[in-house]
Automatic annotation (TrEMBL):
Transmembrane segments: none annotated. Gene3D superfamilies: YlxR-like. InterPro entries: YlxR (IPR037465), YlxR-like_sf (IPR035931), YlxR_dom (IPR007393). Residues 12-84 form the YlxR domain. NCBIfam families: RNA_bind_RnpM. This is YlxR domain-containing protein. Coiled coil: none annotated.
Length: 96
């Protein structure tokens, strides 16, 4: 009999620091097909996604415009504020 081997989990990269982690360990920002930008708490929303590992990396990605490039969109200050607020709330909710 041939034993089934477990496939290694696919690693994703943080767009700011380049750190690699599993999908569940990173936070996803998504650009939907209608152009809206949002924090994706489930990690399953349809659209182009970008992964970040922490609040510090979010700030770094915003300052260097890496988030804009990764999502192939021009984000407004309102987009940044909304995404940052949602991400911080999700991080704090997960840690207690």
């Amino acid at each position: 009999m041939v034993e089934m081997q477990d496939k290694p989990k696919r690693q994703r990269s943080c767009i700011a620091c380049g750190g690699k982690a599993g999908k569940g360990d990173l936070h996803r920002i998504v650009r939907a097909s209608d152009g809206t930008i949002a924090f994706d708490a489930t990690g399953r929303a349809a659209g182009r996604g970008a992964y970040l590992c922490s609040e510090a990396c979010l700030e770094k990605a915003v300052a260097s415009k890496r988030l804009d490039r990764a999502l192939r969109a021009s984000l407004t200050d309102e987009d940044y504020e909304r995404v940052a607020s949602d991400m911080k709330q999700a991080i704090r909710g997960a840690t207690g």
